[in-house]
Design goal:
Elements (H helix, E strand, L loop, with lengths): L1 H18 L7 H12 L4 E8 L2 E7 L2 H13 L3 H8 L3 E3 L5 H6 L1 H9 L4 E7 L7 E7 L7 H20 L18 H5 L1 H17 L3 H14 L4 H9 L9
Antiparallel strand pairs: 1-2, 1-5, 3-4, 4-5
Length: 244
């Protein structure tokens, strides 16, 4: 027990040391990379959850980014579930019955992409959840003990960074403002694109917002694309969504 406690303390100190001086807007990417180093996972992503729509703001690699975009496109998955209940969600085996029944399409798509386990940690102060830290594993198995503690500490660091984002424009240790502008708006510019696309679908199909978002998601999934890609096309007048 003492040995485990010492290990946890050393991990906590390593996290603080590695992230010291990181600008708030850069924290999501840094934390994702650090999670892969410290935990038995192959990828990590960070998403903000706004109006039930997860928006990826950081990822350790393309594969992890794809998992985040998949959940945003489907409107389903561990990250949305964790955000909804404001509590950690551990799916140790996406081929097992509980995961297949809860997220049938996500489980199938994720395992086809080589992901067998997901742990989603909510960001925020209970009971308010502003997003999730999502950890992906290529082999079955959930985080527990010291590893779960490490994931929770990383989530706490992210929460603090997100709270500090409105002040990021005042000057950060790493210098420049985030791409797209300072503060939270610089990280969430893509969310505005999706909202604009939803508005266009509402006008084209004369449907309410919820149905417009569902139609946008269905259109994207049926064509093997992400909801963000389709939104960019619609807003850029490179496509049109009709009742097809």
């Amino acid at each position: 027990m003492l040995k485990e406690a010492v290990h946890v303390q050393r991990v906590d100190e390593a996290i603080v040391e590695r992230l010291r001086g990181t600008a708030p807007w850069a924290a999501p990417g840094r934390v994702c990379a650090l999670a892969v180093e410290l935990l038995p996972v192959t990828g990590a992503s960070v998403s903000l959850c706004v109006g039930g729509l997860p928006l990826r703001i950081g990822a350790s690699d393309e594969a992890a980014a794809g998992m985040a975009e998949l959940q945003a496109t489907l409107g389903d998955g561990p990250c949305l579930y964790a955000a909804g209940i404001a509590a950690p969600v551990i799916a140790p085996d996406l081929t097992a019955v509980p995961a297949v029944l809860r997220w049938p399409v996500f489980a199938h798509q994720a395992t086809a992409a080589g992901v067998r386990a997901v742990t989603s940690i909510p960001l925020g102060v209970e009971p308010v959840c502003v997003g999730t830290l999502d950890l992906y594993g290529a082999e079955p198995g959930g985080l527990d003990g010291g590893d779960l503690h490490t994931a929770l500490v990383l989530a706490g660091v992210l929460t603090s960074a997100l709270v500090a984002l409105p002040r990021a424009q005042e000057g950060a240790e790493e210098g420049a403002d985030p791409p797209g502008g300072g503060g939270l708006s610089g990280l969430t510019a893509d969310h505005d694109q999706i909202h604009r696309a939803v508005g266009m679908v509402m006008a084209q199909l004369r449907v309410p917002a919820d149905e417009a978002l569902d139609r946008l998601r269905g259109y994207a999934f049926a064509r093997g694309r992400t909801v963000l890609d389709v939104a960019h096309d619609l807003v850029g007048h490179r496509g049109s969504l009709y009742a097809d």
